[in-house]
Design goal:
about 20% strand, 10 helices, 8 strands, alpha/beta
Length: about 325
């Protein structure tokens, strides 16, 4: 993990809070740093590189949403994971977040649909949430044409994308639509309190600190009042009973750790089956770094085991 953080510094990556949106979108990412460490250490990209990809467009009221299909080898029909990338709803895209969906496709022997959604500040809240639900519904209805089995579908996401995945699972329950068999939430944005223990401990953490989260919120929401919306403040909800079983992964050096843990506890209290773990010695964004960060490999193995078990149980 330290090697990745050192590489971020060498790439002259600045805190988001000090940049304009265009600058933040064009500077190197944590994924770039991890790939550079992988290159330096001559670590092979196989076997994940053998997963095949295909870019598609998902129709929506606001125009086509880009998505990337990751397919493992072998014969289907395959189980399905709908994956939402991170980036605070403002930066990054399906290209930046490539390693996690690729590893999930290989490990869970599933089709992973990595979904692009509208970004703030051009499209403020709740645009990304609306797109996340539109994409999920489309996948449920159409994935059979790509050799996927919609009866074995899960949702997954990292950071802001973890919030989107959690909301899709809650929407599916609320709308009495097809529910995912599992939700994989990796350091999800799950609350609007920026004075939690982990915010205080990791105010100046890299690659995500408190000022960076404030920057994302300022760019995504029209006003601070909006952050009390139940779609953001998941820990404040009282309608969690009956939602899909969850895997919640959090990181020690991450402002979002406390709210992720609190959401896992709230789900458990509501009778939802939860597998939750905080990985020590790692920061926000560690999950897709399994090639270079041992805890990321452990977290990915945990995610794959839970998804595989859920798929095997599904009829």
């Amino acid at each position: 993990m330290q090697a990745v953080l050192d590489k971020l510094q060498a790439l002259d990556v600045k805190p988001f809070s000090t940049l304009t949106v265009p600058q933040a979108r064009t500077q190197a990412s944590a994924a770039d740093a991890a790939r550079a460490v992988q290159w330096d250490k001559r670590i092979s990209s196989n076997p994940e590189a053998q997963v095949t990809t295909k870019d598609i467009a998902i129709p929506s009221k606001s125009g086509a949403l880009a998505a990337r299909i990751y397919k493992p080898g072998g014969d289907g029909p395959f189980p399905v994971v709908v994956y939402y990338h991170g980036g605070g709803w403002v930066v990054a895209d399906i290209n930046v977040y490539d390693s996690a969906p690729r590893a999930l496709a290989l490990g869970a022997h599933a089709i992973v649909v990595s979904v692009e959604y509208r970004h703030a500040p051009e499209h403020k809240f709740p645009a990304a949430h609306e797109d996340a639900w539109t994409a999920y519904k489309w996948v449920v209805e159409n994935i059979h044409s790509l050799n996927g089995n919609a009866d074995k579908i899960a949702v997954a996401g990292e950071s802001a994308g973890g919030n989107l995945a959690a909301n899709v699972a809650l929407m599916a329950k609320e709308m009495k639509a097809k529910q995912p068999v599992r939700q994989l939430l990796v350091y999800p944005v799950a609350g609007n309190d920026m004075n939690t223990d982990s915010y205080k401990e990791n105010a100046d953490a890299k690659p995500l600190g408190k000022a960076d989260m404030e920057w994302f919120v300022k760019n995504t929401f029209s006003s601070m009042d909006q952050t009390s919306d139940k779609r953001l403040n998941l820990v404040g909800r009282d309608d969690l009973a009956g939602v899909a079983p969850a895997t919640v992964i959090t990181a020690q050096f991450d402002p979002l750790r406390s709210e992720g843990q609190a959401y896992a506890d709230k789900l458990k209290a509501a009778g939802v089956e939860v597998d939750a773990k905080t990985f020590d010695g790692v920061t926000h964004e560690f999950f897709g770094m399994a090639k270079v960060v041992p805890q990321a490999k452990q977290a990915m193995d945990m995610a794959i085991a839970d998804l595989t078990s859920a798929f095997n149980k599904a009829k």
